[in-house]
Amino acid sequence: MALGDSYSAMADHTRLADAGCMRSTRSYPYVLQSIIGAARFDSAGCGDAMTTHMVQPQQTAFGVNPAQFDRLSADVDLVTVTIGANDMGFLAQAGVCDVGPALGDTRATCPADLSAVESERWRTRAQAAADGVRATIESIRTRAPKALIVYVGYARLFPPSGTCATLPGLPASLIEYAYIRHTMFLEKLTGAAEDAGATVVRPDRVAGYDMCRSADVRWVEPLIPAEVTSPIHPNARGAAAIAALVAAALAG
């Protein structure tokens, strides 16, 4: 059983199982099913999903995605979940403040946001997202007590230093800020999942495949994608790589 947001759902918009959620049959849960030979499989992942959509229906462009937990049952033996980014609004922030300057976006709030990585406001929002992840893992365990729960984190967006070939307008200093903020946020989410007892897989710890890399290497597409997926989201190559990481974790 796969739960989550767009990082669980997206990979290739030409191969969709659900257009409203942009749920691709090339996303990592579908690839994982093939790798491990799962006899039964279902995916509830949906673009823009938050932790609240585990228990509440989500309106999409083409209808409603039911509460994702509705698909859980006591006989489920494996649950993957990728969730938490939209609770923080982090990916939306990245689009405005981290990569916005490359497009001439000079919103006054961006420099303040970037210089306040350790601010109380950022900490509060990040902690709330982490709390949502922890509650999600605990609730999965209640609904599917036999299941191995795997929290699959997010892919790395930026390199830790240097410039970005796909965003040439970004100075190296801004790349470093973006990398630090993203990493800190992911550590909050994965730490909460680990505390709740989930097995954690961290694609962000695999270097060299961020959206600043060439089109034949990267796992995540930049603002102007070369592949048919959403900006700042996994492509089919990235989804397959993430599925392989999860399969390796399952194999022990």
Plain-language structure description:
It is a single chain. 38% of the residues lie in helices and 11% in strands. It has 252 residues and is α/β, with parallel strands linked by helices. The chain has a single domain (2-251), classed as Rossmann fold (3-Layer(aba) Sandwich), CATH 3.40.50. The strands form three sheets. Strands 1-6-7-8 form a four-stranded parallel β-sheet, with helices on both faces. A two-stranded antiparallel sheet has the order 2-3. The protein has a two-stranded antiparallel sheet with strand order 4-5. α2 crosses α8 and α6 packs parallel to α7. The longest helix is centred in the middle third of the chain and has 24 residues, at 120-143. The protein starts with a strand and ends with a helix. The model is unreliable at 92-96, 98-103, 105-109 and 113-118 (pLDDT under 50).
